[in-house]
Amino acid sequence: MNLKFFAFLLVSASVFVGCASSKPVRPTTTADAYSNYDEDLSAVRPKYKEPTPAEAAKKPEVKRVLSDQPLHVNRKLDAVVDTIASKNRAIRFASGYRIQIYVGNIRKEADDARLFSYQNFPELNPYLVYNQPTYRVRIGDFMTRLEAERYLQQVRGRYESAVILAEKIDLKKSLLVK
Predict the structure, then answer these.
(1) How far apart are the first and last CA of the chain?
(2) Which of 23, 54, 97, 138 could bond to 148 as cystine, CB 3.0-4.6 Å?
(3) What pLDDT is stored for residue 40 in this prediction?
(4) How many whole angstroms separate alpha carbon 159 and alpha carbon 163?
(5) What pLDDT does 29 receive?
(6) Overall pTM > 0.90
(7) Do 98 and 149 form a contact (C-beta atoms < 8 A)?
(8) Is 37 helix (H, G, I), strand (E, B) or coil?
(9) Are 128 and 106 in contact (CB under 8 A)?
(10) Cα–Cα distance between 159 and 156 in angstroms, integer?
(11) How much is the pLDDT for 36?
(12) Residue 178's pLDDT is what?
């Protein structure tokens, strides 16, 4: 068995060696393939007339085309801008923030909180919300949380439990807050 296997191995090896090329194959890379490329493309290139010195010195004239209605685009654009502006003016409420300074069941304390807001922050509008039996006093109409946090630090001197709440705010009043 070993002799047959050895003979088979010898025959198959001689077949493989006989099939091998006597000329070594050199692997080509993409760079080698393009470095040997040589073709004359001058026959297919466009030919341009060389300008004379007088033509080269002359500046080309710019032709302006005026339409019959030169402002027709501006009129359409103005109409669109006016439409957008009127829609924006109609928007009265947006999402924003308010500071809640008081939550409790006693009406007098709620009124005191409103009075504190009127005296110390006249630019902020106080809102008294009553859901039986709880009074809530919220102040301000802030567009951003950052604006609300600036006032929150000042309010916490008196009302330590003051918090910022996300609510719908009146846009016209929010523009008055500085």
Answers:
(1) 102
(2) 97
(3) 86
(4) 9
(5) 64
(6) no
(7) no
(8) coil
(9) no
(10) 5
(11) 75
(12) 59
Spatial CB neighbours of 118, under 8 Å, sequence gap ≥ 6: 126
What one-character DSSP code corresponds to residue 69?
S
Q: Which residues of the chain have pLDDT under 70?
A: 1-3, 6-7, 9-11, 13-34, 62-72, 175-178
Q: Which two tokens stand for residue 67?
A: 């339409």
In the block, residue with structure tokens 């829609």: 87
Q: Residue 71 has what DSSP assignment? A: T
Q: What is the largest CA-CA distance in the chain?
A: 115
Q: Half-sphere exposure (CA, 13 Å, Cβ side) for 130?
A: 9
Q: How many residues can be counted in the chain?
A: 178
Task: Give SS3 for 97.
Answer: strand
Residue 2 three-state SS? helix
What token pair was written down for 116?
């504190």
Question: Are 138 and 101 within 8 A, CB to CB?
Answer: yes
Q: Which domains does the chain have, with CATH numbers?
A: 94-174 (3.30.70.1070)
Which of 124, 117, 99, 100 has its CA nearest to residue 175?
A: 124
Pairs from 74-81 (Cβ < 8 Å, separation ≥ 24): none
Distance between CA atoms of residues 135 and 155, nearest Å:
18
Q: Residue 139: what pLDDT?
A: 93
